[in-house]
Amino acid sequence: AIIEKTCFSEDFSALLEEGREGLQSIARLLESKFHVQIASLDMTIELSFASKHEADLLQISPNSPVMIVNGKCMDEKLHPIYRSKQIIAGDKFKIAATQSFLNNAMK
């Protein structure tokens, strides 16, 4: 189970009109609809314990372990695209990471 909150800058307010299916791949949607490419993503991962409210939403016991992932996504001009926070029930999760850079970001 997961709780996710994503906050976009006003430049992307048209995303409010997208159905849930349209948001399955945010990166593809940003590129096709706004011609914006994600250049960087900073993430912080921490282990914590579920508050009562989080536990109710995740259907777990209060104070159960959770993983919290905070992220900040920037475009190629280093303008913010969105910030996100995920709270993931700690019973089962796996961390895998891939990092990619645009050609001009490596210079």
Low-confidence parts: none
The Rg value, from CA coordinates, equals 16 Å
Question: How would you classify the helix and strand content by structural class?
Answer: alpha+beta
Distance between the termini: 40 Å
H/E topology pattern: EHEHEE
Helix percentage: 10-25%
Strand order of the largest sheet: 1-4-3-2
Q: How many strand elements?
A: 4
Strand content: 35-45%
Average pLDDT figure? 84
Largest sheet: 4 strands, antiparallel
Instruction: Identify the quaternary structure here.
Output: single chain
Shape: globular
Q: What is the overall number of helices?
A: 2
How would the blueprint of this fold be written?
Blueprint: E1 2-8, H1 26-34, E2 38-49, H2 52-58, E3 65-75, E4 80-89
Antiparallel strand pairs: 1-4, 2-3, 3-4
From the structure above, extract its key features.
globular, 107 residues, 4-stranded antiparallel beta sheet, 2 helices, 4 strands, alpha+beta
Give a short summary of the structure.
The protein has 107 residues and is an alpha+beta fold.
Commentary on this structure:
A hairpin with a 4-residue loop joins strand 3 and strand 4 (80-89). With 107 residues, the chain is of the alpha+beta class. The chain has two helices and four strands; from the N terminus they run βαβαββ. It has a four-stranded antiparallel β-sheet with strand order 1-4-3-2. It is globular and about 45 Å long. The mean pLDDT is 84. The N and C termini lie far apart (40 Å).
